[in-house]
């Protein structure tokens, strides 16, 4: 039966200060079901403070929040039942094994003993901790703890998932696995808000973004990001005319565009990029820079922060 409560996040004019520090000044945004939103902002911009408010762990000074239609201030318990929270640092029970920690989390969310055990086993497989399932949490590496933390956030199959810097400490393969997992959660109709100041991390994962700067959200609706099959590559040449001609000859002319003196070309994958570079150098084009362009999120982020003309 479908959940009658909408699985979204809505924040309106949220504010929270710590003494004289206005950590969040005015945050307003909405993230709908089935969506992964990146929460993007520089260090100290208020991301964690905002997430703590959404997670019922910090009361706002002003503004309103709805998580699945519920107010975390008025109904924290009901919100926690529908929300998974992965903090930026895992507070683990160091002596409990991975399996027992997850079983206990499940029990705390009201699962019966058998269901909690079953759910723990599912999650251990999901986050790829099978070989470590019977190890105490204290022996886990930082990245493995991150995965345990993610599993714990998912234990009660929440409709809304809040992830604070989930990829920090993860190796590249684990980052890919995280991205796949987050996308899968969203595909189930859930709402995911992921904070990071590493934009490349979010580029691959997020459908949309909430930009936070100095505690204020900006232009969220203007910056939706569509998942792309191809990636843009940036090319700088000492001879732009020769570059344009060689791109034309290689069949890239139609899609090439010039951005701040550099040419941006969409390529399908690294092999195609390598092939194109070989073609350009064989054609005698003097290339001085060649690599992936910054993604849409970074472009927008830099624009919003006035770091680009
Ligand atoms: N409990 C607190 N007491 C006092 N100041 C705080 C507290 N929590 C956060 N701050 C301040 O509020 C501001 C926002 O901090 P916050 O941790 O929310 O930022 P952030 O965007 O998550 O940063 P980062 O990317 O570095 O994790 C910072 O100036 C921080 O020093």
UniProtKB/TrEMBL annotation:
Ranges where the ABC transporter domain occurs: 9-239
Q: What is this protein called?
A: ABC transporter ATP-binding protein
Arranged from A to Z, the UniProt key words for this protein are: ATP-binding, Nucleotide-binding, Transport
Q: SMART domains recorded for this chain?
A: AAA
User: Per the record's keyword annotation, is Transport included, yes or no?
Assistant: yes
Q: Does the keyword Cell inner membrane apply?
A: no
Record-level Gene Ontology MF annotations: ATP binding; ATP hydrolysis activity
Q: What is the lineage of its organism?
A: Bacteria, Bacillati, Actinomycetota, Actinomycetes, Micrococcales
Task: Supply the Pfam families for this chain.
Answer: ABC_tran
- The highest taxon in the source lineage is Bacteria
User: Which CDD domains does UniProt cross-reference here?
Assistant: ABC_DR_subfamily_A
Give the family this protein belongs to, as stated in its UniProt record. Answer: Belongs to the ABC transporter superfamily.
